[in-house]
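Re: weekly structure request thread

Next one in the queue (203 aa):
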Amino acid sequence: MFFFLIKKYINMYSVLTAVALLFMIFDVSYYIRAIGVLLFGRLYPNKCKISETTFHYGICTTKDVDIFLTHMSNARFLRAVDFARQHFYDRTGIYSKLFKSTTFVKASTIRYRRPIALLSHYKVETRMLCWENQTMYLEHKFVTLKDNFVRAVALSQNYVVGVDLPTAMEEIPGADAFKTAPEEVTQWCQFLEASSARLRKKD
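Done, posted below.
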């Protein structure tokens, strides 16, 4: 009995140590939430059209706040954009068309209007702005639920590698309507190109 209890405590200690090491080495909460986003999409089989806005909900916890412990830090906004983008891809069927590809963010810009306070509930409204060649442009609005106020607006430029994006978009109903870039995207791309040109001169 004595040796059984020792073995039990050793096993428990090993498990706790392994869990602690995982949290120290990896951002476990990020992976858990990312998997949760995809599972959520599977539980609701009714997909959204590419022309529709998707809504990803969150709450500002103590892990999200800045050094003053009062509101969401700047970095956590972009982290929430990651989840909202995955949610949009999944609900609109883009994920299934780009399953064999690698999609990564080439650029993102965010404009903060008002902070999201600790324990505030919010949603990220994501919509397609346009796409061209191998690139998609998305808009993400952070809206607090208590007052429906837009707290921040982000734009993301998402590049697709491994799959021909125009061919994939042909299989998504309504995608042709997003071939023309809005004025704000055109001006943003001009800024990105000017920044790249300046860096190329330095190199």
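Residues 68 and 118 are 11 Å apart (CA to CA). The chain has a mean pLDDT of 89.
Next request, please.
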